[in-house]
Amino acid sequence: MKKTLLLFLLLPLMVFGQDKRQVIDTLINGNDTIYLFADRTWEYSHALNFNGIMSPEIASKIDGTNLKVDWQNEVTFNYDNDMSILNDSIWLCTTDSNYSNFCLPSKAPMTSAFKMRGRRFHYGVDMDLETGDTVRAAFDGIVRYAKFNAAGFGYLAIVRHYNGLETYYAHLSRLDAKINQRVKAGDVLGLGGSTGRSTGAHLHFEVRFFHSPIDPEEIIDFKTGTLKTENLIVHKGLFDYRKIDGTKKRFVAAKNKTPEQIAQEAKEAKEHKWHTIKKGDSLYAMALHYRTTVDKICGLNSISSKKILNVGEKIRVR
């Protein structure tokens, strides 16, 4: 009870997730936590100090490599896990005696496969659901990520499974899943929608192994709604799409960056304002026009206020 009393004194001003509810007490039992709120409600949270390993056997097989298995609630995936380093195949059971259930995330038909689509590679499959349709967890697991994702996924749930895989459920209109929540295959994660970078209601569904996408049709028959196999052999050939989608180049460009950071940089780049010099332009006139100062313009372009401006030259003004 001393620990409980100490937490009561230290946490009165904390808020929980997106609920903005005031936490007045926290009860800790191993890796699990019970939050008590000022509105007399409570919430159970699993995996407070979880290291992300849900399949010790598979984790041991990648021991000694640079593949990351961390547990992050704010990051969708990283670009550091290069699966071309796999020299040996890894065998995993999609279902076993302990975790034997599977559920198709949606009964809607599949409309887009895992392939190049225009200039982008489509890392999952699309299912043609309607806004408000139920979306369910494919396997037993723990919710690692559940929030709005500004990098294009919209409302997104990510579940890490005991078989070593993660599944992604994107463009939801409503999230029912909570971070660190234990779920069973078939449990409701949210409702389908068209949030994020989407042109219409659908479920974007991905299967990933250590952050790297795998074609969901390797294991799921979307026409029958059943598993094709209870066994999946993971080898670097499953990731050959990198040869055509430019992923290796992005690995270099995005080193130590997450999709969220890249999206923020792109947003900031779009907000930059440039001015093409015309005859008679001056730094002072540009500063007045764009409601800024000469010093700020000079700072953005690393130039002197005495710089001679050339017609056709582009100057950043914001």
Describe what you observe in this structure.
The structure is a single chain. The protein has 318 residues and is an alpha+beta fold. The chain has three domains: 2-45, no CATH class; 56-257, Glucose Permease (Domain IIA), CATH 2.70.70.10; 274-316, Roll (Membrane-bound Lytic Murein Transglycosylase D, Chain A). The chain is built from seven helices and 23 strands. The strands form seven sheets. Strands 6, 9, 11, 12, 13, 15, 17 and 18 form an eight-stranded antiparallel β-sheet that branches. A hairpin with a 2-residue loop joins strand 2 and strand 3. The longest helix is centred in the last third of the chain and has 13 residues, at 259-271. It is globular. The protein starts with a helix and ends with a strand.
| Helix segment tally | 7
What is the beta-strand fraction?
Answer: 25-35%
Instruction: Please report the first level of CATH classification, the CATH class of the largest domain.
Output: Mainly Beta
How would you name the CATH homologous superfamily of the largest domain?
Glucose Permease (Domain IIA)
In the CATH hierarchy, the third-tier topology of the largest domain is known as Glucose Permease (Domain IIA)
Q: Number of folding domains?
A: 3
Radius of gyration: 24 Å
- Low-pLDDT segments, ≥5 res: 1-19
Q: Helices and strands, in N-to-C order?
A: HEEEEHEEEEEEEEEEEEEEEEEHHHEHHE
Query: N- to C-terminal separation?
Result: 56 Å
**What is the overall silhouette?**
globular
Oligomer state of the chains in this structure: single chain
- Estimate the mean pLDDT confidence: 82
**Residue share in helices?**
10-25%
The total of beta strands comes to 23
Structural class: alpha+beta
> Major beta sheet, specifics?
8 strands, antiparallel
CATH architecture title of the largest domain: Distorted Sandwich
